[in-house]
Amino acid sequence: MAEHLRATGGQVITRFPPEPNGFLHIGHAKAINVNFGYAKTHGGVCNLRYDDTNPEAEEQEYVDSILEIVRWLGFEPAQVLYSSDYFQQLYELAVRLIERGLAYVCHCTGEQIKEQRGGEDKRGPRFACAHRERPIAESLAEFQKMKEGRYAANEATLRMKMDLEDNNTQMWDLVAYRIMFKHHHRTGDTWCIYPTYDFTHCLCDSFENITHSLCTKEFFLSRQSYYWLCDAVEVYKPVQWEYSRLNVTNTLLSKRKIQALKTAGHITSLDDPRLYTLPALRRRGVPPQAINAFVRELGVTTSDTVIEVGRLENHIRGALNECAPRIMAAIHPLRVVLENLPESHFEELDVPYNPRDDSFGSRRVPFTRTLYIDRSDFRDVDSPDYFRLAPNKTVGLNSLAHPITCTGVRHAADGSISEVLCRYENEGSAPKPKSYIQWVADCPQRGSPVRIDEVRIYNQLFKSSSADEGSMKDVDPNSLEVVRGAVADVGLWDSIKRYAATAVGKKELGEHHVENLRFQFMRIGYFALDKDTELPLGAIEANKIEDAKLIMNRVVTLKEDSKKEA
């Protein structure tokens, strides 16, 4: 401890130690906030340490993604470290453990070890492995053979000689080293034996002078083995504290199950925006501050609870309300002709991006004889509880001085509505409208409408709130609706150009982080550009929208009931 205090000066040091075998998920967001937040609160630092001791599952893609996501959430590690940095030190401590009679090389199969630990339910009789009392010199020689690759995988392991009589399963002679002839992403083929999590974790914490090993409650039983190993090899022993993990309804976080969803064709990729991995949430357009606010609101406790996903969505709405410019759009556009206006009618309006915040600025929006409204804003059969456009009914148009009244409807050959005829009530008096709807002008010379190649409407992936082993059967086949042909007002393209003109925007777009372009489509929902968008900086700078391909994700619905018909 004295040596530890000399090295740290009493400073708090924590770490976030993910295994780079998959993308981080919403649960990791809590771990990141807890570890970085605790260190910051106490004037300390937090490291990022990759637990890269299993080359069978680890990939460089995940290594890169983890650091990127940590920074995306707003945290900067004091150091970026790897368990593989300590492979030689760990090996030497394994030898020390053998020399002290506290580890032995075992040749039992996995099934045999399971039987020694009381069988499948761990309630049967426990008994020692036949190799447990082999001479120290023999185990040292056998461990050397393992290191030299003279045993095949699964033919030998190094196990810690702990306490088989203890009621804690984490004291039943855990495996410390196993054989894997796999290429490691950092050490290559230098090693064919790799330490387990149970052996590595506490020792790396000790090497790095971690003061507080913060972990979720499933590691509570591991606290005893954590302390046992540090004491056994006589190294500095950090303190371990546990907290409850984050469980959220409608989410599936298991890497294996997510891969199964992809294999079955239920999702398109491992960052499909319907998932709750952090890259998937980022791709959907969720702001990082919403995720941080969500996990901080929950606090740090030891109580096991399942949080409604709606609480996360409320934080997403709150964050987007603060940062998303308001755009008029029609997901399912319906053509409207104002018959009493001349073909050449043209006006230009100054429309604010956020009527409640002048700092957002405004754009110049054209108004012409022909408009588009959303098809959901018109019914050809009226009803008393319906307040939007219908035959002989008057509605207001956002930002315009006068309302419109429907005077007729034209139908296509298949019976669908192809065009709505209206009168612009700019002369005389007209009934005061009970509702206002958004609209987009047909004015090609002013770049209106902005045509969106594809809108992806995401809903919950599962029909029920509990995603468990039966989740495959619970997948909602209608969780994704793809809409082509949506339109938006010129503010959409103008916002993209304004963002690209900033240093931050130019950098982010250059790295294709288009998800930072988020919008509120008025009365519809919040949307962001998807990574499948084609948005060359040259096209933006040259104002050539025809060279872009806009694909937008719905991030979240508006606070109001999205199913409301009135």
Assign an overall shape.
elongated
**Structure classification:** alpha/beta
Q: pLDDT under 50 segments (min length 5)?
A: 560-566
Distance between the termini: 69 Å
What's the main sheet like? 7 strands, mixed
Q: Count every helix, treating DSSP H or I runs of 4 or more residues as helices.
A: 15
Q: Bin the helical content.
A: 25-40%
Number of β-strand runs: 29
Beta-strand portion reads: 15-25%
The largest sheet has its strands arranged as: 21-18-19-20-14-17-22
Rg result: 31 Å
Overall mean confidence score, pLDDT:
94
Brief summary:
The chain is of the alpha/beta class and 566 residues long. It is built from 15 helices and 29 strands. Helix 2 (26-41) packs across helix 11 (288-298), helix 7 packs across helix 8 and helix 11 (288-298) packs across helix 12.
Name a few traits of the molecule.
single chain, 27% helix, alpha/beta, seven-stranded mixed beta sheet, disordered C terminus
Describe the structure.
This protein starts with a helix and ends in a 9-residue tail after the last strand. It is elongated. By secondary structure, the protein is an alpha/beta fold. A 7-stranded mixed beta sheet has the order 21-18-19-20-14-17-22, with no helix packed on it. It has a 6-stranded mixed beta sheet with strand order 12-27-28-29-24-25, with helices on one face. A 4-stranded antiparallel beta sheet has the order 4-5-6-7. It contains 15 helices and 29 strands. Helix content is 27%, strand content 22%.
Task: Outline the fold blueprint.
Blueprint: H1 2-8, E1 13-16, H2 26-41, E2 45-50, H3 60-72, E3 80-82, H4 87-99, E4 103-106, H5 110-116, H6 136-147, E5 157-160, E6 175-179, E7 193-195, H7 197-207, E8 212-216, H8 222-232, E9 239-243, E10 247-248, H9 255-263, H10 278-284, H11 288-298, E11 306-307, H12 309-323, E12 326-327, E13 329-330, E14 333-338, E15 346-352, E16 362-368, E17 370-374, E18 394-397, E19 404-411, E20 417-424, E21 436-437, E22 440-441, E23 450-452, E24 454-458, E25 480-483, E26 486-488, H13 491-500, H14 503-510, E27 518-521, E28 525-529, H15 537-541, E29 551-557
